[in-house]
Amino acid sequence: xxxxxxxxxxxxxxxxxxxxxxxxxxxxxxxxxxxxxxxxxxxxxxxxxxxxxxxxxxxxxxxxxxxxxxxxxxxxxxxxxxxxxxxxxxxxxxxxxxxxxxxxxxxxxxxxxxxxxxxxxxxxxxxxxxxxxxxxxxxxxxxxxxxxxxxxxxxxxxxxxxxxxxxxxxxxxxxxxxxxxxxxxxxxxxxxxxxxxxxxxxxxxxxx
Length: 208
Fold this sequence. Notes:
The protein is built from four helices and five strands. It is mainly alpha-helical.
């Protein structure tokens, strides 16, 4: 059994070799379940799915007038389609222009993103090297300080104060460099977020 079609097909008359349009039933009598057809000869929806319904429909005045003027209607429709096509071409030209600008902006954004990512990696390497160096020097100073405390209980107050001051300076520099590292990472995150937002806006424009 063939499936029933629920979506009607728009009916159109046939062009005859001698000129003019003529009705011809589109329904195959050999098929048990027919495709419904919709005739647009009048504003009200006219449906038929059998030969009998088709024959009855084409006899009404609305349909006969529609057949007589069908050629003019087709020409008017073609003219409207031509106007619409020109409008679509203008819209396409505008969209292509926006697309080219968007691609150029996207290329610049990608290049800037790559540059910032490279700068961040370079900054991270430099900060890591500085932190490792400072930690090594601080560890050495701490060890020296412990040794001095154990072996030189009678060390001069000034030398001890100078050594402690250097130690504090190294600690402070280590903390400053660590904060700078965190600040650079936050700034990069903000820039990357801005780039992503720009790219999302561009995608929205391109999909409109």
